[in-house]
Structure formats: structure tokens, C-alpha cells
Write a structure and sequence with these properties.
single chain, 320 residues, alpha+beta, Phosphorylase Kinase, domain 1, Transferase(Phosphotransferase), domain 1, six-stranded antiparallel β-sheet, 42% helix
């Protein structure tokens, strides 16, 4: 077990743990600083206690998640990191992989919760700007030969002003060139149908367009203020039944019902709804082959939607 004050020595230097920031079933994240110059960082470590309790296959899977994240972040060039969290250092601690990441002010889930607690929201203009940034981050993930498969507000880091988003947590990355069906990966509340509902063999067939569905679910959530009913149903089923939740649901629920479309447009309060709705429907197409083919196509749809917002006097503008 680690505690505040511990020194973690990685490849490039030594880091002092200051306070826990959060974690998952197999990981821990600490606020840390460089022993050399005080540079702040987020230190990501394997949860040793959980690792010791896990069966060998689970231990291997957890380690593979850390190794995949380190490999991806190490492969990036400096100019690729505008909207992807920057790797400061990596190596091993106590025989397990560890990495130091740039420290931002929080994640988008917490930022949105704070906004909405004040009765504010990001507004359609800010939502589109954020979605554009995330699209750019996903483009880099795909360019380097991966699909992300876990896009959600908690995995998007944000600066204090809420103007810059950075994608983080790449442990679920899977190679794009590997088209074989795979085991369950990701978070049920933000998944495309093909990522939650398995094939006849109980496996999942995903590709880059699975990330685009999650981008659409994010856009809906940012503007409407609530999750898609499809995503909420999948999340409830997973909480009750785990990966067997798809079987409990049976057929996939409807995606973007008419009342949800109406709520989205009402919350957007834009004078020209057409382009915004075209973007949302394209991203949320039930079949992958009906979604945009690549990030450039999405960028063009975002630009058209933004033009529609610019025609209004500004009543819907962001309070963020």
C-alpha cells in the first residue's frame, strides 16, 4: 500500500505522492509532484491490494490495461497532445506499471455537476466546442491504430475555465486492425449497441465508429442535461446483471426517441436546428455503417451546426 509522502521512482525521475485523487477497481490516482522541481502530476498506480486478491487472468488483464495505456502515450508526438493527456514519466513501482501524467483541474463529469448545481449548463455552443475537441482526440487515437471504447465525461480532463478538454485513461484501447470479436470493454452508460449487445458467441464487434456513437451520446448529454434513455437502460441492466445485462434487456432499446429529440432541440434553443440534429443523428445511428466514416466528416458536421448557432442573437449561449 502507498501513502502520502511516498517517493515513486520511474524512468525519468522521482515523484512524491501528496494526496489521493481517485481510482477504479484496479487503479489508484494520486496528486504528486516531482522531487526535482515540484512539477505537479497525476500519478497512476496499480491498486496492489486488489491485484493481490484477483485471480491470475484478472491480474493479467489489469496489467495489460496499464501496458496498453503506457504504450499508446509513449507513441505520441508532442504535437499530437493538444487534446490528449500528456505522459510525463512511466516505469514500474513495486513490480507493477506506473505512470505520471500532466495534472489538470478536474474531469468533465465534476465540472458539469458544479455547473448544474448553480442552475447553469454548458450551452449548445460550448457543447459543440467540446465535442470538436474530443473528436480531435479520437482522431489521434484512431490515427495511431487504436479504438478507444470508453468515452465518457469522467475520462475527459478539463482546465479550471472549462475551455480545454483532454482525453485520458487509455486502458481499454484495442487495435483497430484487429477486427476479431472481443470480450466486454468500456462503460455501459456510454456504449454503442454493438459494444453492449454481443454476437451469438457472446463476443463484441467494435471499430472506430463505436467511439463516434459515444461522442453522440456525449453531445446529447451536454445539451439535454440528461443521458439518452438507451444508455440509461444499458447502464441499469449492467448494474443488475453485469455483462449479461444485454440478455436481460433482450432487443436493444430505441435510440433517440421523438421526445428525446424534442428535449434536445428545446435545450439547444438554436434558431437553425437542422444541422445540429443532422450531427446528432449521424453519430447515434444504430448501425456502425450509417455513422460518419472518419473525424473529418464529423468536423464538417460540427462546423455546419456551429454556423446554425451563429445565426441567433445569443440567448442560448453558454454560461460555463
Amino acid at each position: 500500500m502507498v501513502e502520502a509522502g511516498d517517493i515513486i521512482t520511474l524512468t525519468a525521475g522521482a515523484w512524491r505522492l501528496l494526496a489521493p485523487l481517485g481510482g477504479s477497481s484496479y487503479g489508484q490516482v494520486w496528486r504528486a509532484e516531482s522531487v526535482l522541481d515540484g512539477l505537479p502530476a497525476a500519478m497512476k498506480l496499480v491498486n496492489r491490494a486488489q491485484m493481490d486478491l484477483a485471480l491470475p487472468p484478472q491480474r493479467a488483464a489489469w496489467r495489460a490495461c496499464f501496458d496498453a495505456e503506457i504504450a499508446f502515450l509513449r507513441s505520441l508526438q508532442p504535437w499530437d497532445q493538444r487534446h490528449i493527456v500528456r505522459l510525463l514519466d512511466s516505469g514500474e513501482h513495486d513490480g507493477l506499471p506506473a505512470l505520471a501524467l500532466e495534472l489538470l483541474d478536474g474531469d468533465l463529469a465534476a465540472h458539469l455537476a458544479a455547473l448544474r448545481s448553480r442552475g447553469a449548463g454548458p450551452g449548445a455552443d460550448r457543447a459543440l466546442a467540446w465535442v470538436g475537441q474530443v473528436n480531435g482526440a479520437l482522431a489521434k487515437v484512431h490515427q495511431y491504430g487504436w479504438r478507444y471504447l470508453d468515452l465518457k465525461p469522467a475520462n475527459l480532463l478539463v482546465d479550471a475555465r472549462g475551455s480545454v478538454l483532454k482525453l485520458a485513461d487509455f486502458g481499454t484501447n484495442r487495435p483497430l486492425l484487429d477486427s476479431a470479436a472481443h470480450s466486454y470493454a468500456g462503460t455501459a452508460a456510454w456504449q454503442a449497441p454493438e459494444q453492449f449487445f454481443p454476437d451469438a458467441g457472446g463476443r463484441y464487434r467494435t471499430d472506430a465508429r463505436s467511439d463516434y456513437f459515444a461522442l453522440g451520446a456525449l453531445l446529447y448529454y451536454l445539451v439535454a442535461g440528461i443521458p439518452l434513455r438507451f444508455c440509461a437502460a444499458c447502464a441499469d441492466a449492467y448494474r443488475s446483471h453485469g455483462a449479461a445485462g444485454a440478455g436481460a434487456l433482450g432487443a436493444p432499446p430505441a435510440i433517440l426517441a421523438p421526445d428525446e429529440t424534442a428535449l434536445f432541440l428545446a435545450r439547444a434553443a438554436a434558431p437553425d436546428h437542422d444541422a445540429l440534429l443532422v450531427l446528432l443523428r449521424a453519430l447515434l445511428a444504430p448501425r456502425p455503417d450509417a455513422r460518419p466514416r472518419h473525424a473529418l466528416e464529423i468536423s464538417r458536421l460540427i462546423a455546419r451546426a456551429a454556423e446554425g448557432l451563429d445565426r441567433a442573437p445569443g440567448a442560448w449561449r453558454s454560461a460555463a
